[in-house]
Known about the structure:
By secondary structure, the protein is α/β, with parallel strands linked by helices. The protein has a domain at 30-160. The chain is 58% helix and 14% strand. Strands 5-6-2-3-4-1-7 form a 7-stranded mixed beta sheet. The relative contact order is 0.06.
Amino acid sequence: MDEGKRHYRLGLFVVVSLTVLAVLLFVLGGRKLFQPTYTFETYFASSVAGLEIGSPLRYRGVPLGEVSEILDSAAVYERDVPLDKRRKYIVVRAKVTLSAVEAIQVKHDAPELVKLGLRAQTQLAGITGQQYLALDYLDPAKYPPLQFGWTPKYEYVPSAPSRTGEIIAKAQLLMANLSEVDVKRLDADLNRLLVNLNDKIGELPVAQLSADADNALRSANATLVRVEPLVAELKQTVDNAVVVTRSLRAVADRGDVDRTITQIDEAIERLNGLMGDNQYDVRVIVRDLRVTADNLRELSATIKRYPAGALIGGPPQKVRLPVEKSQ
């Protein structure tokens, strides 16, 4: 009986432990297995070297998921197609792994986004050389969908050539153009150009140019000599202006200007009051000054007529009073 209980307890412990472990795995990430996901595929007509399974999937730089499969169209869709008629595309499948809500949203909006120009292309991740799959909006007319004759397993998103591929293609085209250049003719033209250049340099009047340059330098030196005193005077004037400005600023800061203006206003007010109080006396003084001026004018006229009498003439005659006769 005891042996049966021990087996029962052991079995119960194992079952409970497995249940707890399963719950923990589900909570820590296993539940993603039961969430809805969205997978799409795109095709490239050129190489996708550097792109690997697990490479990031980004929508305009925002992480969205990862690359899940990289296949050859001949192995997936063109097994029964003759070799000369196979497209030989590279099939890249990517999965949105952020959340169920985003997966459902992308799946719902994908057809319309493709019509608006959503395209997939490979891009380099910094300077490491690793590539990732990028989704961005491009010109639909410039990058139309590739032609194929099979039904895609997942929703198809058109692709666009990678910028790295375009750069490499342009570099290859440049090298091809350079290889087609007639090197011998180019060398001959370059030698002829150098000879002509040497001839032109030999025809230059070097002595005359040297003399002109020397005269120009001497003239510039003389001009600098004349300018130096002017610069010194200008500097002295600027220094004096700075001193005057500082003095005026100091006077303004001490309040002397305001105090002087106040004193002038007070003096004007006192002068106005004095003129108003002695207006009559001023008029009398002005009248006496006019009389004195008239007398001086008459004296001047008399001196002009009788200068001797005015200067050495004797005293005036005595006035004799009339005497009354006695009766």
